[in-house]
Amino acid sequence: MQLRQLEYVVALIQWKTMRKAAQHLYVSEATISQQIRELETELGLSIFQREGNPLEPGLDLQVMTDTAYVETQHSFDQFTTAEPLEAHLKALRKPLLVIFGAEDQIAVGAANDLYEYHMVPGVQVIVLPGVGHSPQVEAPNKTAELIVAFLNNRP
């Protein structure tokens, strides 16, 4: 498996057609098709349904992503319910920068999370206005600027 093959998979999921994915990746449709077939052969599974446009993930890919989501959620639940977040972070005894988006609709209870973070010694919490759940994607320059400033101010 090669990183480039995974990039092709992500592009096909994002752009839904071979033509659009090829245009955005600056490669031919034949190149993407060949690389996807090689990846499917190597993994022994069907990544995409071959009929029609837009391209749809095949059952194997759906099962893989569903399983990954469930496992990730399960691990997160175990981590957050076994011990309060505050206790996990205090135990690290490391500087901590937390960047939240003020418009975050996914992190339910973000206000409560902010309170928990403020209970950790040495924490720096920043809330970016007009930004949602993924500051690193929605405001990459500002997020990078904050991280660099945080790292430069460490003892």
From TrEMBL:
GO MF annotation, one: DNA binding
Name recorded for this polypeptide: HTH lysR-type domain-containing protein
Domain of life (superkingdom): Bacteria
PROSITE patterns for this protein: HTH_LYSR
Presence of keyword Disulfide bond: no
Organism, scientific name: Dictyobacter aurantiacus
PANTHER family in alphabetical order: HTH-TYPE TRANSCRIPTIONAL REGULATOR CYNR, TRANSCRIPTIONAL DUAL REGULATOR HCAR-RELATED
The family this protein is said to belong to: Belongs to the LysR transcriptional regulatory family.
UniProt keywords, alphabetically: DNA-binding, Transcription, Transcription regulation
An example Gene Ontology CC term for this record: protein-DNA complex
HTH lysR-type domain mapped to chain residues: 1-58
